[in-house]
Amino acid sequence: MRVTEKNRIQMPNTRIKDLRERNGQVQEQVSTGRRVNRPSDDPLAALRISTFQTTERQVEQFDRNLTRGDAFLQQADGALAEALDTVNRIRELTIQSISAALTQQDANDIATEITSLRDHLVTLSNTRVSDHYIFAGFLYDQPAYTAAGVFQGDTNQQTLEIGDRQWVPITIPGGSAFGDGTAATQDVFATIQNVITEVPIRNVVGFANIETELANLELAQAQLIEARSQVGVRMSQFNAAKNVNVFLKERVPAQRSDIQDTDMTAAIAELQLVDTALQTTLAAAGRTINGPTLLDFLR
Questions:
Q1: Which residues contact 274 (CB under 8 A, 6 or more apart)?
Q2: What is the dihedral of CA 22, 24, 30, 36, to 10 degrees?
Q3: Conformation bin of residue 109: beta by default, left when phi > 0, alpha when psi is -120 to 50
Q4: Where in the chain is the domain with CATH 1.20.1330.10?
Q5: Is the pTM here over 0.90, yes or no?
Q6: Which terminus has fewer CB within 10 Å in the chain: N or C?
Q7: Are 79 and 172 a contacting pair, CB within 8 Å?
Q8: What tens digit of pLDDT does each residue of 218-235 get?
């Protein structure tokens, strides 16, 4: 191979350029702690890193959704549990009212207590998380029930994504728990209002009507139990999703780090080698450029 004067000077310059580029790359890796700082560093690795970063953002969103949804479900479970206790107490009082030994005042007192319990039940049906009434469906910015116990929400359910393509309802339609005034559900408040009306009536007809309302109260209890069981199922789904999310929050960043991060020991060792090679090449290039040329040998 013929080596010209131009080649004799260009070869060390090319080597110096390559070493400086590599020196800059390794210095950047050491200073940032990342092996891949831009797609051109490793296109395939950069693509995998981007995928992991997308997954990490999804996991963060799932985590926020799980926290938010858990607040709704906990509130719903607590409200339904207390509502069941309230209806049970109303049923006990209703059974007591059938006794012929009660005086009119006793019956009136029972009706007054049931009225108070009914008002408490309305409050429970309007349980909310922040400004969201959890039994009102999509009409969550207004109470699910009026003071008279009339349903004014809708039958929709709010849902949240708590895992990849895993959407779970976080609310229970108020109608499915407390009734919505249609034949499809047992209207708890209408039933209790009938009880309040019938208890003070101390005759056979009144007692017969109370017997009918006792059966309706049993239906109301069953309806509330079913609604609470739905909440329980969703809470189980949330717990399972939380476990998966905890695993992903640890695993995905670790997988990204394995690809993206620099092996500092190896990078520092390489930086020293590249720096030594660069200094040696610079020194050799200086001697080559400043040394005798081919013209000096021809003289």
A1: 19, 22, 23, 26
A2: -70
A3: alpha
A4: 65-257
A5: no
A6: N
A7: no
A8: 999 999 999 999 999 999
